[in-house]
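comment on this one:
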Amino acid sequence: MVEVIRVEALDDPHIAIFRHIPDPVRLRELGAFVAEGRFAVRKLIADPRFRVQALLVTPAALESLKDADGLAEDAPPVYVASRTLIKEIGGYDFHQGCLGLADRPQPERLTALLDRLDRRRPIVILEQVSNPDNVGGIFRNAAAFGAAAVLLSPGCCDPLYRKAIRTSIGTSLQVPFAGVDDWPGGLAAIRRRDYDLVALTPKVDATCLERYVFFEDGRSVALMLGNEGDGLSFDALEAADGSVRISLGPTVDSLNVATTTAIVLHHIRSLSEACAQPDGESSSPDGRSPSR
């Protein structure tokens, strides 16, 4: 049965931990993270991997969540407050009157994650992508186009940061992720598991996306992307097995990193669908293997 408690004051002790929400560093020190918005909170409470500490919602948000999976049994306490009070607590008004506070899960070890992934699906590796809108957008694209996981170098935005969760529409709660703490040395561990490291770069000597052969010799694909300011570092480019560029018009020199991720993941998925043969084998669209 859901325990519903009415909250009318900012200093109510029931919601003490929610007052740390505007400070992501402090919230992380407390071993917690917050999801905001009804869509993301639905995903949070429905996923058994997360222990939800409490919900802070408006009456309207509570009504919209009544049929949500995970709210019927062993439900967390639900604190109901006005939208104005929730804005005072949360610091922003993007929450749709709905906040979910949960225990931060233990970070997954890179090698353990790689060992359980479906190798037929690409993975995405990010280097120094610190913008939460970009990280959230990349997770959204990963979910939309079938990437198996997202890996992050030091310096990337936390996928469980509230804005990243919001921008991802909750998919950063679903798509597996892990940190590559040893950077760029950890890229070798990924290659040893039969992944080709494919650098996305606007450099003119990179292979055009349409001509690059993905999954060559049965190897899996790890797409590497850097931030918009600097792109991939020299060390990351040196570690790559190949490099790919997207052909652009003469007035544009590069694309947003999340947009680039979407285009390449969609291309890979389209190839997989178009090239699948009845016996499960695949080939390039023209039956040949274009050079890299």
